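Hi support team,

I'm opening this ticket because the web form for multi-chain structure prediction keeps timing out on my end. I have pasted the exact lines I submitted so you can reproduce it. The total is 493 residues across two entries, so I didn't expect it to be a heavy job. Is there a limit I'm missing, or should I split the entries? Thanks in advance, R.K.
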Amino acid sequence: MAKTVKSEEELGWKDLEVGCAVSQPGNASQYRVGDWRSNRPIWDFERCVKCGVCYLYCPDAAIHKNAEGYFEADLFYCKGCGICAMECPTRAIKMIEESE
Amino acid sequence: MAKRIGIENSIAAAEAIRMANVDVVAAYPITPQTHIVEHLAELVADGELDAEFIPVESEHSAMSVCCGSSAAGARTFTCTSAQGLALMNEIVFIAASLRLPIVMILANRSLSGPLSIWNDHTDVMSVRDCGWIQVFVENGQDLFDHVLFAYRVAEDPKVSLPVMINIDGFIGTHVIEAIEYWDEAQVKKYLPEFKPVNVLDPDHPITVGAFAVPGIFSEAKKAQDEALIDSKPHIIKAWKEMEKVIGREYRPVESYHAEGAETVFLTMGTFNETVSIAVDALREKGASVGQVKLRLWRPFPFEELRAALGGAKRIIVIDRAISYGGPGGPVASEIRAALYGEKNMPVITNFLCGFAGRDVTPKDFTAMYEKTLDLAKRGVVREEDYIFYGVRE
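Hello R.K., no limit was hit. The queue was backed up. Here is the completed structure from your submission:
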């Protein structure tokens, strides 16, 4: 959408492409959708069996595997929908309020 | 001088679109636009126009196809009227925000209801704020010339906006007039090849029509507004260039005996010519009266209009649409806004007339002139902000 790489808060109207076309493919990854979140998932690695169901169900592909093989959310992208917590077969994921 | 041909204005318009060598026509038939689209379908079927003719299932689809084809770099045309415009409304606004240089002829027809097929300006005024460049033409030659003008302006890389040509339905579309066709050399000289600013190309992928978050939406709207305002010098230049090629002169605001006249009519579309006849008759009787014709509706030509109307004591604005429960006619409310705060603000009377094809003759315009003089003399203009002319009690 913009001619230069700036955050949306820094862009002026002259920075926009004609018709707001997006000329750089894949730049949606720069958008911090994690800002929308009101609850965040936390993992209890004692209960986690590393099955990866949370990874498969996450609609934003925001869950990844860490070095020990456990799964965790990238909070830059996680919108806090809670699907991972709902689907986890061992109840290893809990949603807590961002204010906590 | 090229040969003049006696031909129906709609057919001539379709021939102008053929000369513009469009790549895609997507349209749904609706009275009184039908003859333009039907003739284009014939031209494509007969192999005289190498274009895709897409017979869509609705006007919403017509404008959607136009957006897609224009974004892919195809010179694109559509045409509609009234209810068709209402049905495509959503995409009309999107075409402008995407800065797609689509050209549309709007055969002006009354927006229902009651159901009507006849002419007025209620359809175009429903999309006044859609962001397109909007011009009004007054006869067949004007229509023919403006098809080529519209592509030149729309596709100017400094403009890149859709253009809407308004022609009064039936009164403008269905009459036979003597029209001077351009020759191929003139078209070639005037209308360069279409080189889109942005184009959908698998080798260089872009996204067209992405959403904008609140943090950027206002900037997007400001950019769109500036683009429309900034199109005016390019519009004027395109008219000047046209004059060099074909010798006819067009301007955003045109005058007829307006300079020095105490009372000035302001009109758009086919009423221009009828009012000129009334002006001639009144001037013969010694009246100080003239006429200003508004050709460019968007971007609104503030400076040109103030210059043309400056010095007039009274302005008679003719509207062919109404803002229900509002300030009367949309044209008059804009003229009042344009002149607000000017020195020696003239008295403005606003007559709503010519709805759904009702005839308005030079005699009627003379009556409006006399009514205006009477109201101004008695100082009661504000008591009748707008007047439905000729409505029976």
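A quick check on our side: The mean pLDDT of chain A is 92. Let us know if the file doesn't open in your viewer.
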